[in-house]
Every structure is written in structure tokens, then in C-alpha cells.
Write a structure and sequence with these properties.
single chain; about 650 residues; alpha+beta; Beta-Lactamase; eight-stranded mixed sheet; seven-stranded antiparallel sheet; transmembrane helix; Adenylate cyclase; Adenylyl/Guanylyl_Cyclase_3/4
């Protein structure tokens, strides 16, 4: 390699470099300072939420006002209907049995005070007969003493009253059961009793003399009379009233002759709910709870929808405790065509409205993406430009929108210009300056650096037998090895001089291990060059021998130049010494594939380095005094020295 005179004070620069110095004039590159992070939103979302939001709000307001009014009115009427029907049935039930319970409650004091004697059965029967005649809801009134003997009055199906002693007349048996009572027991309802005439509910009170229970007064009431009263509130052929008692037995059903679903019940009453033959009652527990009936639910009324084949029914029911040993369920169901049609109409309108909202939002999203896609692509490609990944930047397509088309043309031209500039400006250097703040980091200053200078041995002779293209190809392959090794250790390639390279560590990144990083990089170069030479030898190409000089010392680093010819470079005695060291390799590395010579200033900073050999003290051209030189093993393993990389900080 030939040099042009002394290198002292010479600025090795990129001829087409762009200025980064503080006084670079009109062409200086201003690197923005780090700003506080701002909340950014993609244009696609802005357009989608904006346009779609306005359409959605408009449709939602209209939909809300109309549907809300319809739903409110419809479900208010349905709630009122459910409450009215169910409470009417419950009132009839409670009114019927309350009169029965009141009858025994009113008679009890006469027995307890001795006005009616248990021993004078004739007089007692007369009193019971009067009580039974005045209360049509009672079928049997019977008094039972502690020995089990009884007497009372029975109302026959034809309405005739039959007094009896010890034995109830035919048809009156199995109308009641005596519960376990104490002297303090209140009126107590026993289980439902079934005989040939029908089903009976019975209530008993204790008869007390002197604080001791002496007998029981019981009244039994036929459910046939209750059915007549409840059927009076039925809403026609489209409604069915029922009562479920004894756990799950249907004891009253208003459509025993003809069911709404067609046909007749398969059994007589009472019958288990699932065996009666009414498919609506059979599916009672499978009903779907209807929403919108909160008012009815607060009154204890359950409203559900039951599907039977292609028909659906609205079921309203309530649990009524107190008139047997188990709670009763009274209710009514009717065809849900009218109500279901209204509910479905309202639901359908709501679904259509929601569908319109969804479609509007989807259209807005589509339009937003359509309009914002070029800008989104611009943002993606701009991030690649910001990271200097220029080879990965895709050209922006042309657009029919004039403004977007102009942006695309300008961006594509900018990228081509950056690619051309990046051919001459080291990408790693530009990235560091951008990261550290170009104006501050590029300002010329003195710093302690480690400089590496490489040169190919006898390249002039090697290139004599090559064409220009072959020479360029060999140099490019060689320089790619050098650059990769330097950048792998965080160094900065300053320039290529003929077949040589100048690189340095310690700026713009301030790092205390710059000497160790430079030595690691030199050994990376040696290993990579050895591998390349093996490949070259197999294909008959010339192999390359390399000299590397490494020196550590103070140097001026930063922008050096004038007007529009600024270079970020290093100058000073340290650079000259490094070049002299690689030149000294001609004498100390004869025949070696790679020779690495380092100054004592560099070796002194290699903690744990054992693969070095003292070469002696040498007087270098252009430098007063002798310099202690060390010869490093180019192929030493990385673990032979402690080259750990500490945290890198910005240069002061």
C-alpha cells in the first residue's frame, strides 16, 4: 500500500461525507433531541372510529328510542297480565281454604270452654251441622277424642248433610288424616287425601280442656269446589289453569276434556305431572326463563317459555305454601303466539338495528383501511429508513389520490438518495451518531482511542494479473470481512485507503474496553481471513496475507473539514503510530498469513492476555523515542483473555 507522505495531521475522510459538525453551515444534519413519548393513534382507527362512530350513534339513537318505547310498553303489559292472573288464582285459593280454616278456628273455643261437650254428642252434632250448612267449602266436620272415637257431619255429593258417630258414611272416608298436635298447636293442614268422590284438603285444631289436649277438630274440603272457583277466572280456550300438589301431582286441570296441544289427558286427576298426558306440564321444568319480567319475578311469579313441537306456550306459576304438608304450585299457561310475535318483532327490530350498526362500522373500517393503507405503508417503510435498513425498504406504490401520489414519489426519491449516500458513509457510524445525538457526538474533541490499521501484503503484485473487475471483487470480499469483524465488536470503520482499512474504538461510544474490543476484532479478521484463504486455495485463487497494527492513545475525533466537505474521522499521532506498526509487520511477520502488532499502550489494557510476545523496542519513522512493540497470536481462542464488554455510554 502506498501512502502520500507523512500521515501526521492528515485527515482521513470520506470525500462525499455529509457534515455533522456544529459549524457545518447550511448543510449540517440536525439530529432531533429525544422528546417525551406521545400517544399516537393510527389513521385507520381515527377514520373508523370517527365515521363509524357518527353513523353508529345516529342509528343507535333512533333504534334506542323506538325499541325502548316498544319494549317498555309491551313488557309492562305482560308483567301486569302475569301478576293479575296469578294473583287472582292465588286469591281464590287462599279465600277458599281460609274459610275452611276459619270455620274450625271459630268452633274450637266452643269446645275448649265446654259450650259444646264431647260427651253430649247429640248436641255437638247439631252444632256441627249448623256450621257445615253455613260453609259450602267444607265437606266433612269431624271431632276425634284421644281414644280415636269420632263423630261429625258429612256433606254428600247431592248436598245432603249426614251426622255420624264412629263411622263416616260411605263416600266420606279417606277425607282427612289426623296430624300430630299438642295443646298449643295452631291450625295444621294435613296431606291431601283421595277417595272415590275426589280429593280433599284437611285442616285440624287441638281441643283443649284445662290446658290438656282432649281431642281434635278436623275440617275437610273437596278440591272440586276449589276447581269451580278457579276456573271462573280462566281466560278462555287459549288458557289452561292447573294446580300441582303432593310433590308433583296435578290435582286440578281446567282442560281435562280437550288439551290445547290436541287430544285429552291420558289419566284422571290426581296424576303425576309427567304421566297426565299434557306435554306442556311435562316440560314444565325445561322452560326457558323470559327476560323482561322482573316486575313479575319480584312478586314471586315465574314466567317462562315452553316449546312443544312447533308451538310455544307462556307459563306463569307461583308457589303457594300452607294448605298441605307440601307447597302447592298454581299457574296458567296459554299459547304464546300473540306475545311471542310481539317479542320477536321487537327482538327482530333490535337485531336489524344492531346489524345496521355492525355493517356501518365494517364499512367505516374498510374505508379507513382503504384510505389509510398508503400512509400505513409509508409509516412501515419510514421505520425501516429510520433504522437504516435501506435494502429492506419497499418502494411506495402510486396512488390515485394526488397528495398521496406526491408523497409516494418524494419518499421513493429520498430512499434512492439515502442508498446512494449510504454507499459512501459507514452505516454503523451514522447509526451511532443518530443514537447519541449527532451534533454533540460529532463535535471534534480529544479522546483516548484504540486505532486499528490493516494492509494486504503485496497486493500491488497480486493485482497485476487481475482485471479491474477482478481486483474490485477481491477487495470488496476482503473489505466485507474487515467491516463485519469491526462492527461485531462495536468499532467504527473510518475509511478504506487503497487495500487497507482504518478503524477505531472509543468514539463516538465512550467505552473503557476499547483496546480489548480492537484486539478481539483483529483476531476475528484473522480467523475469517484464514477461512476465506482455504476456500480460495481450493478454487485456485490467490490467498491474502495481512498486516494489522493496533495502538492506543489520545487522538482528535469528530468532524474535520470545511464547507460541504466534512468528515467524521480521527487524526493525530495515535493514527500515525498505528500505520507505522502495520508497516513494521513487513519485518516481523515475514511469511505469516496474519501478523498483529500492538503497542505496549494497548497491551497494558488487555487484562488476562497471555497470547502475546514482546517484539522489542522500535524507533518508528516520524516519532521521537522508541516504542515497545508486542506481537499478538492472531488465532488465540477468545477464552484466553478477559475481553468482557462493559456497558457503553455516550461520549462526553
Amino acid at each position: 500500500m502506498k501512502t502520500s507522505g507523512e500521515m501526521s495531521g492528515h485527515a482521513f475522510g470520506h470525500e462525499n461525507g455529509h457534515p455533522l459538525g456544529k459549524d457545518a453551515g447550511l448543510n449540517k444534519v440536525v439530529v432531533p433531541k429525544r422528546k417525551r413519548r406521545r400517544l399516537n393513534m393510527p389513521l385507520t382507527r381515527i377514520i373508523s372510529f370517527g365515521f363509524g362512530g357518527f353513523v353508529a350513534v345516529a342509528l343507535a339513537l333512533v333504534l334506542y328510542l323506538s325499541v325502548k318505547a316498544n319494549f317498555r310498553n309491551t313488557f309492562s303489559l305482560l308483567n301486569d297480565k302475569a301478576i293479575l292472573i296469578t294473583q287472582s288464582m292465588e286469591r281464590e285459593l287462599r279465600g277458599h281454604f281460609s274459610s275452611v280454616e276459619q270455620a274450625v278456628t271459630d268452633l274450637k273455643p266452643f269446645f275448649d270452654n265446654g259450650i259444646i261437650s264431647l260427651t253430649d254428642t247429640s248436641a255437638a252434632l247439631g252444632q256441627l251441622q249448623v256450621a257445615l250448612a253455613s260453609n259450602e267449602q267444607i265437606t266433612v266436620l269431624v271431632v276425634t277424642d284421644l281414644n280415636g272415637d269420632n263423630f261429625g257431619v258429612y256433606r254428600a255429593p247431592n248436598g245432603r248433610l249426614w251426622p255420624f258417630r264412629r263411622q263416616i258414611p260411605s263416600g266420606g272416608e279417606k277425607t282427612y288424616v289426623l296430624p300430630k298436635l299438642t295443646a298449643e298447636s295452631p291450625p295444621t293442614w294435613g296431606p291431601l287425601m283421595l277417595n272415590d268422590i275426589g280429593q280433599f284438603a284437611n285442616v285440624s285444631v287441638p281441643l283443649v280442656r284445662g290446658g290438656q289436649k282432649v281431642g281434635t277438630l278436623t275440617a275437610a274440603s273437596s278440591l272440586n269446589e276449589l276447581g269451580v272457583a278457579i276456573r271462573s277466572i280462566e281466560e278462555g280456550d287459549d288458557a289452561t289453569i292447573f294446580i300441582i300438589a303432593n310433590g308433583d301431582d296435578v290435582v286440578l286441570h281446567s282442560d281435562m276434556e280437550q288439551l290445547q296441544t290436541g287430544g285429552t289427558p291420558s289419566r284422571t286427576l290426581p296424576a303425576p305431572r309427567t304421566e297426565l298426558g299434557d306435554p306442556v306440564l311435562a316440560a314444565l321444568n325445561k322452560g326457558e326463563q323470559l327476560s323482561g319480567f322482573e316486575k313479575a319475578a319480584s312478586a314471586g311469579i315465574d314466567v317462562s317459555r315452553i316449546e312443544v313441537g312447533e308451538d310455544d306456550f307462556i307459563m306463569m306459576r307461583v308457589v303457594v305454601p300452607g294448605y298441605s304438608d307440601q307447597p302447592w304450585v298454581i299457574g296458567q299457561y296459554f299459547r304464546g303466539i300473540t306475545i311471542s310475535r310481539e317479542v320477536r318483532r321487537l327482538t327482530g327490530s333490535a337485531i336489524v338495528g344492531v346489524g345496521a350498526l355492525i355493517i356501518a362500522v365494517l364499512i367505516a373500517i374498510w374505508m379507513g383501511r382503504r384510505v389509510a393503507m398508503p400512509l400505513k405503508n409509508l409509516a412501515i417503510q419510514s421505520r425501516k429508513v429510520g433504522s437504516l435498513a435501506l435494502d429492506n425498504v419497499e418502494p411506495l406504490p402510486r396512488s390515485r389520490v394526488a397528495e398521496l401520489d406526491q408523497v409516494a414519489l418524494a419518499f421513493n426519491s429520498m430512499v434512492e438518495g439515502l442508498k446512494a449516500m449510504n454507499t459512501y458513509v459507514p452505516r454503523s457510524l451514522f447509526s451511532k451518531l443518530m443514537r447519541l445525538g449527532g451534533e454533540k457526538a460529532a463535535y471534534a474533541k480529544e479522546a483516548e482511542l484504540t486505532v486499528v490499521f490493516t494492509d494486504i501484503v503485496g497486493f500491488t503484485a497480486l493485482s497485476e494479473g487481475m482485471t479491474a473487475s477482478e481486483t474490485s471483487r477481491h477487495l470488496n470480499e476482503h473489505f466485507s470481512i474487515l467491516v463485519a469483524a469491526v462492527e461485531a465488536e462495536g468499532g467504527t470503520v473510518d475509511k478504506f485507503i487503497g487495500d487497507g482499512m482504518l478503524a477505531f474504538w472509543g468514539a463516538p461510544d465512550a467505552r473503557p474496553d476499547h483496546a480489548a474490543a480492537a484486539v478481539r476484532s483483529a483476531r476475528r479478521i484473522a480467523r475469517a481471513l484464514h477461512a476465506a484463504n482455504l476456500v480460495a486455495a481450493t478454487r485456485g485463487s490467490p490467498v491474502i496475507h495481512l498486516r494489522i497494527g493496533i495502538h492506543t492513545g489520545p487522538a482528535v475525533v469528530g468532524n474535520v473539514g470545511a464547507l460541504d466537505r466534512w468528515n467524521y474521522t480521527v487524526v493525530g499521532d495515535t493514527v500515525n503510530v498505528t500505520e507505522r506498526l502495520q508497516s513494521l509487520g513487513r519485518d516481523l511477520g515475514i511469511g505469516e498469513e496474519v501478523v498483529i502488532l500492538a503497542s505496549a499502550d494497548t497491551v497494558s489494557q488487555l487484562h488476562g492476555e497471555t497470547c502475546e510476545q514482546a517484539a522489542g523496542d522500535f524507533a518508528l519513522r516520524g516519532r521521537a523515542g522508541a516504542l515497545q512493540v508486542w506481537k499478538l497470536d492472531p488465532f488465540a481462542k477468545p477464552e484466553s483473555a478477559d475481553y468482557s464488554v462493559p456497558a457503553i455510554t455516550a461520549a462526553e
